């Protein structure tokens, strides 16, 4: 299969769009945690009970058309190969926990993969909506639509005082986790992130790496999300997050302007060095690749590189992960082979972009 065809099939269709403030906010995610009433949480439920939940969900929602998301496909974890599950993790459609630790897990996916409903992860259901750019309000609207759609046929565990009941106490209440993936290279280069992070934490928000809790912020990409789910409405939680994200957008843009005014030569050198290394390297580790891609994306957004599309960062940060590299190769690769394949894929992708 050619790289062009592989990219077309491998990248989630929703990722091909450029949403609002796409130069800084790569994507928005809204997730709702829900559990079936009078049923043990997944951590305490038997495998038979969890399999019954999958069967129930499949019979009521698999291949059933939704107004916004169309038909959903049910994928059972025990029916998938390890690398197939790894690819879903790399695309943020399922969690590593569902892939590796669930006694009986599954996921319902929409055709464009902007909706995924994890089944029997930490909770019976994790409804997740993914949108390009800065679209938290729209994400909450669509997640609530799916929540209502599920609740037409399933009774969720709910307490009048506490709200929705969840396996982890930090999710009790709305069960809402809203987050945005942000590319903040200028704030990192100007060393402002070390000052900003503690201030964000004091506002009840948390900043993590690209794969959530415990992950590193590779390629200057940060995930900013809410921590509190109890005592606030869903709208208030999203509005509070939107306000902080908006401020981060303004600060990142100001930092980019400052770099161009005071350090243009150094930024140009950094951008074009990374562009050259990505264009000609024969081997490249994942960490270096994400940093070099971040530099090139900054160069695109600053107008220093005009023959590449900004979406290339989103694409290659996913396509150069181990699961995708092995899917493209059609075989299991050693770390050294992955580094060679990563470099080759990046070179070929950059050539494709120049021809377009």
UniProtKB/TrEMBL annotation:
* Molecular-function annotations in GO: ATP binding; creatine kinase activity; protein arginine kinase activity
Per its record, the protein catalyses: L-arginyl-[protein] + ATP = N(omega)-phospho-L-arginyl-[protein] + ADP + H(+)
Question: What family does the entry list?
Answer: Belongs to the ATP:guanido phosphotransferase family.
In which residues is ATP bound? 27-31, 92, 126, 177-181, 208-213
Q: What does this protein do?
A: Catalyzes the specific phosphorylation of arginine residues in a large number of proteins. Is part of the bacterial stress response system. Protein arginine phosphorylation has a physiologically important role and is involved in the regulation of many critical cellular processes, such as protein homeostasis, motility, competence, and stringent and stress responses, by regulating gene expression and protein activity.
Name this protein carries in UniProt? Protein-arginine kinase
Keywords of this entry: Allosteric enzyme, ATP-binding, Kinase, Nucleotide-binding, Transferase
Q: Which top-rank group of organisms is this from?
A: Bacteria
Per UniProt, the short sequence motif RDXXRA motif of the pArg binding pocket involved in allosteric regulation occupies residue numbers: 338-343
* Annotated ranges, domain Phosphagen kinase C-terminal: 24-255
List the CDD domains: bacterial_phosphagen_kinase (cd07930)
Q: Name one GO cellular component term.
A: extracellular space
Which EC number(s) does the record attach to this protein? 2.7.14.1
Q: Which Pfam families does the annotation name?
A: ATP-gua_Ptrans
Print the organism lineage. Bacteria, Bacillati, Bacillota, Bacilli, Bacillales
Characterize the regulation of its activity.
Appears to be allosterically activated by the binding of pArg-containing polypeptides to the pArg-binding pocket localized in the C-terminal domain of McsB.
InterPro entries recorded:
Arg_Kinase (IPR023660), ATP-guanido_PTrfase (IPR000749), ATP-guanido_PTrfase_AS (IPR022415), ATP-guanido_PTrfase_cat (IPR022414), Gln_synth/guanido_kin_cat_dom (IPR014746)
